[in-house]
Amino acid sequence: xxxxxxxxxxxDLEKGAQVATSLLQQRANDVRSNxxxxxxxxxxxxxxxxxxxxxxxxxxxxxxxxxxxxSPNPMQFASIFRNLIEKIAKDQTLQYILTMLDDALQEDKxxxxxxxxxxxxxxxxxxxxxxxxxxxxxxFIVYQASRIIAKIACWSKExxxxxxxxxxxxxxxxxxxxxxxxxxxxxxxxxxxxLRVDAYRQVFVDVEGISAITSVLAGSKVGFQxxxxxxxxxxxxxxxxxxxxxxxKFNIIPILADILSESVKEKVTRIILATFRNMLEKPEDxxxxxxxxxxxxxxxxxxxxxxxxxxxxxxxxxxEDLTYLNEKLASSVQDLSSFDExxxxxxxxxxxxxxxxxxxxxxxxxxxxxxxxxYELLKILVRLLETSRDALILSVAAHDIGEYVRYYPHGKHxxxxxxxxxxxxxxxxxxxxxxxxxxxLAVQKLxxxxxxxxxxxxxxxxxxxxxxxxx
Length: 471
Prior knowledge:
mainly alpha; Leucine-rich Repeat Variant; Serine Threonine Protein Phosphatase 5, Tetratricopeptide repeat; 30 helices; 71% helix; disordered C terminus
């Protein structure tokens, strides 16, 4: 299925399902029930006779009646709404005007080009009056204006020019990061619309948009509707080869794997599987495909696929994606070397006592490989020691740094240069006995060079905390 068709298909499924109504939609219904006294604006000389005649007829008209009012003079439609938006200051009336305009655009998508043409003829920016509203204190006005910007940007024959596009995408990104944003669903919906357009995706990535999405998905709990909308945005990005090859740098696979394991909503499951499939299917670099596959294996995606297969699934998209992912991941596991497994685990940041950590042979053969790519894996271990609060991760990271020093002749110097020695030493007093134990072993390895001597002196059974073992 072609990209555009696939996007449309998923959107149709979304519309067919019961969708949580956003706060903006709820309040828009209240706004529509209001009545504006247009005559008072005429009498107060705030609007002209022409504006009064048009808007009083347009207001409360049916879609067919609106079309008949616009078609004789489309430029009048754009002119009057711009005039009203720029001159009316009262929040309640401005809410009504924006809702009426939003409805009119929804009725006929080609009307966005009327605004584009009007702005071109008058050498004005089509965006300026709406961008100006994004600074208002009334949040309904702000987000209703944002919806209109998104519609003009996505439905127009000509794309949004880069400078305005950057400004708008940065604004949307900031709305995602805004704590307790009651209009988060509307911001996400605008972003969904924007990222359906191929030309806008790279710009969103360039303004650090992916990290904004992942911070919401990985942060405080959000509802399934927000999860769906933001993962939809990631799915849109995953259709672009140049973007999908960089996506897991933002820890997307672990985040989506966690959501998949907890989600009970089919539409969330569907969009995660579709994103995972693109991450294996779209990259042209085979190493990237393998990296993504290994990340999914490390994050227990295979187990989740097995659980999903055990359910009765009627959605053919889910069934098809399940089949593809199972085959691809099974193939990747067969090609997996112990060092591949280790690399993937370290990069995921989810360290556990997998067999490679306790294998003398593994460290003897692979310790020197932690120097590759400018000590990439070693630096990740150091960063985990700096940032993690998880006792298991700290224990494994301290252990691995000790094994690196033990089996790589110049390891002590490298570890000291990276600041890891001091980090390990601070965990000698950690509250968790397993962390203290692994830190002590690592410090011994950093201080002693004769390993056979160390082995004779170190009574592991006495140091080993009760209940300690390989999981």
